[in-house]
Amino acid sequence: MAYGRGAAALKAIEGVSLEIAKGEFIAVVGPSGCGKSSLMKLISGLHPPASGALTVEGRPVSGPLRSVGMAFQNSNLLPWRTAVQNVLLPLEIVEPHRSRIGRERAQYRDKALRLLESVGLAGFTDKHPWELSGGMQQRTSICRALVHEPDILMLDEPFGALDAFTREELWCTLRDIQAERKVTVMLVTHDLREAVFLSDTVYVMSQRPGRILKRCEVGLARPRDLEVTYTQPFQDIVHELRSLIGGRH
Amino acid sequence: MDRGEFAIKLLSPAAFVVGMFAIWELVCVLFSLPLTILPAPSEVFGALWQYRDPIASNSVVTLWTTLLGFLIATVFGLLLGIGVGWHRAIYAGIYPVLVGFNSVPKVAVVPVLILWFGIGEIPAVLTAFLISFFPIVVNVATGLATTEPELEDVLRALGASKLDIMKKVGIPRSLPYFFGSLKVAITLAFVGAVVSETVGSNRGIGKLMLDAQAAFQVPIVFAGLLVLAVLGIALYAITALVERRFTRWAFRGQNAH
What we know:
The complex is a heterodimer of chains A (249) and B (257).
Chain A: E1 2-3, E2 10-11, E3 25-29, H1 36-44, E4 55-56, E5 59-60, E6 68-72, H2 83-88, H3 97-100, H4 105-118, H5 134-146, E7 152-156, H6 164-181, E8 184-188, H7 192-198, E9 201-205, E10 212-217, H8 232-245
Parallel strand pairs in A: 3-8, 3-9, 6-7, 7-8
Antiparallel strand pairs in A: 1-2, 4-5, 9-10
Helix pairs in contact in A: 7-8
Chain B: H1 3-30, H2 41-50, H3 52-86, H4 88-103, H5 110-117, H6 121-145, H7 149-157, H8 162-199, H9 205-214, H10 218-246
């Protein structure tokens, strides 16, 4: 995958080959600018690959996949909508909900409310984004990515802008969501602890043009408690990943 | 509104206005300026009262030509703005034309309009329209063009069409820009109408002032200026009110919450 044309083209990622199983939680880590986000855009079908093949559930990807939910570092909530209205947004776009939402608004609203309650936002559903804390905004953003029951959840540094405590809280929220829904998750992050705590497999990418340096299976048993992050096996994996990424110390 | 805010929002501007008139009056008396150079506020208000009927009837003409021109500019500006903001190619192509068009002083266009439509209210309406649609177009187009790319990705990944993205995100998002531009546009429309009246027309405040000036009735000229200022403030205030009403979410920083 490349940006620009001809000789000046900037190759963002090159020779990346990875296979994600259904219901698997993978994390992609690497130095900044290594093409992690490009990989995500590629898989979601937003950017067609310059060369190579991409298949989801056996079918080649030719355009945006509707079965994808996305959330970014910036929660990107619409400020003129309340939390629950923001969560309903994908349903106003994706079929078959799109043609039903006019008639069945109440049912859909209930569904969105339940989803928000499940991430601990009961009582904040009718607040506007600026009335919510950063963590709450990010929870809302994740609910928006989940509401149309996508098969794949793509998260691009979703917790990057949060403080350490809120981040750990949201790790647990995400862990529970994934355990409950069995959704396939691709998490792009540069927080190694986050990657190891949450995922089944961690892919380490190199400097631009991004290649996959290592595929690392996290053997830690599920369900994982936050306590696991202080154990030796966990630390060993994080340490190994850290040494692969390099950089000046 | 508590007392402190009341003092700042109402008393402070009132005190400034009264103070300005007091200084003006004082200067006129102290230097005994002739009426034909600078009439004192007392003279101006006197003229305003004495000629209230012609001033009122001419104000009404200026007001409706302004509002009609502004209305056309709003509709046209909104549509063109959406068109321009729709795609980068349209944006790039039409922008220089718009800037060039906007750079032409509208006072130079009025004679052409009079040539086409004759002396009357139509040139005033058209001048008001021509002068005021530009900020609306630019603001709406900018609002649309600056939609966060990630937000677009979220929607595109769901299979949203360009029209969907416009309806759900682009247009609501550009509403504060749109209403903000209306405040600028209404003032400009007013300027356009008066300029057109001054160049060639039968009625309106601009025409009234032109006639008064020709007859050396300087207090009436100033009374006209005063009326223009008051009308300008009123129109601006109404538009600002509409803006706050429709885009409350964009003013969150200024409202206690």
